Amino acid sequence: MEVLLARLTLLLFQLCTLLRPATTSWPETRFTKAYGHYPNDYCHFTDVVLDADERAFLYRSETDHHNDCQFAKIIWPIRNVSGAKPNCDETFEKGHVFTIFYFAGGSNYFHLHYDLLLPLYLAVHHKKEQTDDPRSHVLMPTVESRRLQVLDWNTKAFENDKKYWVQLSRAIAYPYTYLPLQESLLNAKRNICFKEICFGTQSVQFSSDDVINGFVEHIQKVVNVKVQPFEVDRIGLITRSNRRRILNEDDVIAALGTIAVTEKVEFSGMSFQDQVALMQRYTVLVGINGAGLTNGLYLPPYGVVVQLVPYKAQLNFREFGVMLKCRGPYLEWHNTHENMTRVAPHDKYNNNADTIVHTEELKKVMLEALELSKTARETDKFVHQEL
Length: 387
Fold this sequence. Notes:
alpha/beta
């Protein structure tokens, strides 16, 4: 009887061993850290698992590397664990986990480009070997509960594909996988493994022509927008409705209309693809410092961006200028007339001030812009003839 019981015990153990889910060896994580764009630590791990039950990114090491990631460890649940490696339901070569600018149910077009798209382009696409395998990279956008605070698994940010921040983050992910960090991802109860994974975004040299123009080409390819030759010079004047408005828009359009066809441009409600496509229409895009001016990146190669800067405003117009100069011809007009400024209440830095644009001054700038565009086209035509 004892012998039979022993044999049954052995048989049961062997059966349980066969039925137990297979585990794989779990190499010790290798870790590196570099200066990041946002947050200021750009942390790279190898051999990491997003465990759905633990609701955390797990790795194995004798060292708690996540403690070297000052803000990443606050935003994302990253833990060093011991024991067997959890099963992998999906495996990606490289994961990119990053925050997306999302506040009070909305976002900001400039910050999406400056803080998100350009750093991700650099990490995923720029001078990288491209592949059609969607598992080569997975991009995982995150919404913080508050700035530099723990992520919000219950965010609604990614529910509507028509929202421009979703369209932009999907565009930079193409042709790879896009998996927002949200509750539905955990509810699927699937563990996701990464051979490599980066938390945050890497720093970017925004003055690099190579990076900026490579990014623009990538976006134009993804949204299937082709650059068309100019048929007629056309000026687009960006209109704003809440702050930093041009108070004499009609006068400006009438004045500029004497030197070229001039139209108001309203981006509100447009899809990302439609905004990029619309830019192919203009020789010159002009507007007061603001998110819509970011679309100047997508002008044709000889298109000119003209940024209007309010009177003594302490804005990020220099950041705009650095980025837009890399793309192509660029000019600025600064309001130097205090009496042509309408300051908003409690706005001691004039950052939200409305402006009455001096039409004769702007006409001179626009004539220079049209000449710049003409010269650029002729120079390029000569270069191609020489080649």
